[in-house]
Design goal:
The protein is α+β, with helices and mostly antiparallel strands. The chain is built from eleven helices and 22 strands. α3 (156-164) links the parallel β8 (143-147) and β9 (169-174).
């Protein structure tokens, strides 16, 4: 697969910009290119350098429209795939859009920029509507193409989605300014994306001094190993033509190792997760810890503590609702809410069987924002005092899952010792009373 990246400046003369672009396409085809990609808003000024005055809709055009009609005719004439980037209008909304024109002149579809930035020089929220066409991969005459427009490249989800959908090359139309990013990051970000996803990444950048920004050029292509295999010049119009050996894709680390070892059944939950609540200042370490029987008011508070569990905490304690159900249906369940002053911070549950003199710590949970303040130790002291007063009590047993960061140091500090028994995958421990 041979591709060409057209790195050219743009002026206020839209027609002349397009004519220069068409000449670049012909030159690229003369050099054997099967795919030609343009930079962001290739045939017009980069409007978002300044905030919109509200009259920007008149600068945009539909797809199909005048530009795509001319490029479709040229694609059909030359048998080349063309991926421009346009300021699109659809009804009363405008988008940053890359249509994909196949070698027979058909428009296979369009990708609209999904994530819209707004900061100095890039006031794009005042011009663009968020893209609503997803992230299609196009089966063109030259190969499978995905498009990640400018700001979308910063989102790993974009690059991964295109790779999973079968893209061989991800084209990145961009408007990147001189010294916009720290040294090396401009290329490093795309090199990592290419390596992690086992695809070619071809970034085509604007070039030239405009109203407030100077665009850098330096378009480049990365192979699936993350190596830059071609680079255009800085600060000048250029045509970068590069051969892509697509056999490298299946041989890449990503396709051989990373993708087969993915765990997608986990990712949806992670990506939709809320942040762990910040540690609260009150109640503090000096708060008075008490154990309270569960009434209707306390029940609601205890159930809400499930929203404050730390990552992996559910591997050490059952969800609160399950514990409450167990307490309700088991005559031997002794269940208390843990309060620090007047704030519920957790719960504790005991298997309490005085007839057989068996006492077993069933559950202990301190919600994440209240951990590390000694509340669990104080709650256990109250529990131990309670068990010492029970008929025939000689020991209090407990068990824990032996995982890194688990509760064994906590129990050991209270005087528990291993019994040598296992309860399923949990280690059984005892405290002599």
């Amino acid at each position: 697969m041979r591709i060409a990246l057209v790195q050219q400046h743009a002026t206020e003369d839209k027609a002349r910009n397009l004519t220069r672009g068409e000449a670049a396409i012909r030159k690229a085809v003369d050099q054997g290119a099967a795919i030609v990609c343009f930079a962001e808003l290739a045939f017009e000024p980069f409007y978002p350098q300044v905030p919109s005055d509200g009259e920007h809709t008149g600068k945009a055009e539909p797809i199909p429209g005048p530009i795509t009609e001319r490029l479709s005719a040229l694609a059909r004439e030359l048998g080349v795939v063309i991926v421009p980037n346009l300021f699109e209008v659809d009804e009363d909304r405008t988008y940053d859009t890359s249509p994909v024109i196949d070698g027979d002149g058909r428009i296979l579809g369009a990708t609209r920029m999904i994530h819209i930035p707004d900061y100095a020089g890039y006031h794009e929220k005042t011009y663009y509507t968020k893209g609503n066409l997803g992230l299609p991969v196009y089966a063109t005459a030259a190969g499978r193409i995905g498009v990640a427009i400018c700001y979308d490249r910063h989102y790993p989800e974009t690059m991964r989605a295109l790779a999973l959908a079968g893209a061989e090359v991800i084209l990145v139309p961009q408007a990147g300014a001189v010294d916009e990013w720290p040294e090396g990051l401009f290329e490093a970000e795309m090199r990592v994306a290419a390596f992690q996803n086992g695809v070619f990444v071809a970034l085509c950048n604007r070039v030239g001094q405009e109203e407030t920004l100077e665009f850098a050029g330096e378009s480049f292509v990365c192979d699936p190993s993350g190596t830059v295999i071609a680079r255009a010049g800085r600060g000048a119009d250029d045509l970068l033509v590069c051969d892509l050996d697509t056999d490298q894709i299946e041989a890449s680390h990503a396709k051989r190792l990373f993708f087969p070892d993915r765990r997608p059944e986990l990712y949806a939950g992670w990506l939709g997760s809320q942040a762990v609540p910040d540690r609260v200042e009150a109640p503090g370490r000096d708060a008075k810890v008490t154990l309270r029987e569960i009434d209707q008011q306390d029940l609601r508070h205890v159930l809400k503590l499930s929203d404050q569990m730390a990552p992996n905490q559910d591997r050490m304690v059952a969800p609160n609702a399950v514990s409450i159900a167990q307490a309700h249906f088991n005559d031997h369940a002794w269940f208390r809410a843990i309060y620090a002053d007047e704030t519920p911070v957790g719960f504790i549950m005991l298997y309490d069987d005085p007839q057989n003199a068996e006492y077993f710590l069933w559950r202990l949970m301190i919600a994440a924002p209240h951990q590390g303040k000694g509340f669990g130790r104080h709650a256990m002291a109250h529990l131990i005092d309670y068990v010492r007063g029970r008929p025939g009590a000689r020991e209090l047993k407990a068990s824990y899952v032996p995982i890194p960061g688990g509760p064994w140091p906590f129990y050991r500090a209270l005087g528990f010792e291993p019994t040598g028994e296992m309860d399923g995958d949990e280690v059984v421990i005892r405290l002599a009373l």
